[in-house]
TrEMBL record:
Name the record gives this protein: Glycosyltransferase
The keyword Acyltransferase appears for this protein: no
Domain of life per record: Bacteria
Residue stretches spanning the membrane: 20-38, 100-125, 174-191, 246-268, 280-301, 313-333, 339-358, 365-387, 407-429, 441-464
Statement: the UniProt record of this protein carries the keyword Membrane: yes
Entry keywords, A to Z: Membrane, Transmembrane, Transmembrane helix
Organism the protein comes from: Limnohabitans lacus
């Protein structure tokens, strides 16, 4: 109990994870999910709709880059920066490639999130209080090697989190908030070792969060993190924050407040009647942050000697502060997993500091559980894909046909080869992991991160055509155009912004609010859910139902197509 740190690590345990292997693993995680699919329901296609409106407005239509609208409605999240980046990329895209080019900035955001987390953990692990115990006769881990090994473990822990996969591959403000919060986390973690780079990261992170619809979060994270860095113990290589540093941080906060007020971006407010039930929040946390949260709790227990004064130890204070602020915001504002996404880099950082303190038995349990879990998941993906291609096993093929009616699978050599290569790489990794090798701090996180990357890659390759057919609005838009025939204009009433964006993108249609039938715009679409409220008005305007288009995998969501009650002149 008198040890200054619970980490007892020898030099042979901090060898680096091969850089090529780490880069390939990150690429296998980042790229699948961004390519080869249409925008999905509902936040993905809705956000893309705002970007498309900004980049390619209709002829004679005026758009405001400070207040993007879709179907005449402003965005609920009040985000600007992600829409600006997506729209700027769309302007460079050829026709039909808009959704692909719109994702390029978001690929960069996810890659920057991973890089920022690695460097943040590295910087925090260099703090003297985070270093392992010095041995009496030498041989303890060197500071840089120890920090590098922990950073590898933190990055692997982040990629292993189950909640990161889907949300981090959608073109929504949630990903931009995750990226900019991780950049802010990196900037605070590296203060005061690298003043200029850290200051730029903090400024970009806070201003970017403000423009991404989370100004309150930016202020809480920035001010609290700055306070922790101001009072934290420092090593001889660092200087304490000066009054000039604190003044610049205060200026950044003031700039965020002014920007949010001028653009009316205040969003994250306490909504008492929308409080998330504690049990629901706990269940969400358990699966969303798995497997990082058990390690994070273990880390807090093993480092409890420093926890009482966590604000003086940035390797504990910063990730705890970021986690508490995001989780509390999620609870108080009634938001869901998209808000919780921002906490993952901090939770992964806490998980990384558990690695030097893990017992061999606990590390072995993590390995075997992860091996069984992800191997079974990968096997399920393969079995379902084989059933789609061959009809065997028959029950799996029937389940696919029942869940995704109308889907016709196609065989792709490229997709099969990619999935097979990933599966063989997993088998090789498992063989290596269960062999006898020297201990490395990051070894306990290799299987969780690689298993998560494997399953994500398999789903986004073997299952992608099926998922795209089920989650995209393209089949529903085809049903609409099959009723209307080749038209370039539709009137609408009561449809969602996601449905409107799908009609504009997949159908290349101009949308006008509902009015009387017109010669140049003689068809009307209505969301079935709103028909009881609109039926009388539609009859008065001269519309009669002509057909229906239901979205795959949804009995409730469908569009009703109307035509004029009488022939137009």
């Amino acid at each position: 109990m008198n040890q200054p740190t619970p980490a007892i690590v020898a030099q042979h345990a901090v060898r680096r994870l091969p850089r090529l292997a780490l880069i390939l693993l990150c690429a296998a995680y980042v790229l699948p999910g961004f390519w080869g699919r249409a925008p999905w329901k509902a936040n993905d296609i809705e956000s893309f709709g705002y970007m498309l409106q900004l980049a390619k407005p209709a002829v004679g239509e005026w758009v405001s880059w400070l207040k993007p609208t879709l179907l005449g409605q402003a965005d609920d999240s009040l985000a600007l920066l992600p829409y600006w980046l997506g729209a700027a990329a769309i302007r460079w895209s050829p026709a039909g490639w808009e959704h692909i080019f719109a994702r390029i900035p978001f690929i960069g955001m996810l890659a920057l999130t991973l890089a920022s987390t690695w460097y943040a953990v590295y910087a925090l692990a260099r703090h003297p209080a985070a270093q392992p115990v010095a041995f009496a006769f030498g041989g303890e881990a060197k500071p840089k090697d120890y920090a590098c090994a922990l950073a590898d473990g933190g990055l692997l822990a982040l990629m292993a989190c189950l909640g990161l996969a889907r949300l981090s591959h959608e073109t929504t403000p949630a990903l931009s908030q995750l990226c900019l919060a991780s950049l802010l986390f990196f900037g605070l973690a590296t203060l005061p070792r690298h003043r200029i780079q850290s200051g730029m990261a903090i400024a970009i992170g806070m201003l970017g969060l403000t423009l991404s619809g989370a100004p309150s979060l930016a202020l809480w994270l920035g001010m609290g993190g700055s306070l922790i860095r101001a009072v934290a113990q420092t090593d001889p290589e660092q200087r304490r924050l000066t009054m000039l540093d604190l003044g610049l941080l205060a200026l950044i906060c003031l700039l965020c407040i002014t920007t949010a007020g001028a653009l009316d971006l205040w969003r994250w407010r306490v909504v008492p009647h929308h409080l998330v039930d504690v049990h629901i929040l706990a269940k969400l946390l358990m699966w969303f942050t798995w497997p990082a949260w058990p390690l994070a709790l273990w880390s807090l227990w093993r480092w409890r000697g420093q926890l009482a004064q966590g604000w003086r130890y940035p390797h504990l204070g910063l990730p705890i502060w970021f986690s508490l602020v995001v989780i509390t915001s999620t609870w108080l504002t009634g938001l869901s997993d998209q808000a919780l996404l921002v906490s993952l880099p901090a939770v992964a950082t806490l998980a990384a500091f558990a690695l030097p303190t893990l017992r061999r038995s606990l590390s072995a349990w993590i390995d075997w559980f992860t091996l069984l879990f992800f191997s079974v998941c990968a096997l399920i993906v393969w079995v379902v894909w084989i059933a789609m291609q061959t009809g065997v096993p028959a029950q799996s093929a029937l389940n696919v046909a029942r869940l995704v009616p109308g889907f016709v699978p196609e065989f792709s050599v490229i997709t099969f080869s990619l999935a097979l290569a990933a599966t063989l790489a997993w088998a090789g990794l498992v063989k290596w992991r269960i062999g006898h090798h020297r201990t490395a701090l990051w070894k306990s996180m290799v299987l969780p991160a690689s298993g998560a990357a494997l399953c994500w890659l398999l789903v986004m390759s073997l299952w992608l055509p099926m998922l795209d057919f089920a989650r995209s609005y393209a089949p529903m838009v085809k049903k609409v155009t099959a009723v209307t025939g080749p038209v370039d204009c539709l009137q609408y009433a009561g449809i969602s912004r996601a449905q409107g964006a799908a009609l504009q993108f997949h159908g290349q249609l101009k949308l006008l609010p509902a009015q009387k039938p017109q010669e140049h715009c003689r068809w009307l679409v209505v969301d079935r859910a709103h028909l009881p409220l609109l039926s009388t008005k539609l009859q008065q305007l001269g519309w009669t139902e002509a057909g229906k288009a239901r979205r795959v995998q949804s009995k409730e969501e469908s569009l009703l197509i109307f035509k004029p009650s009488v022939a137009l002149p």
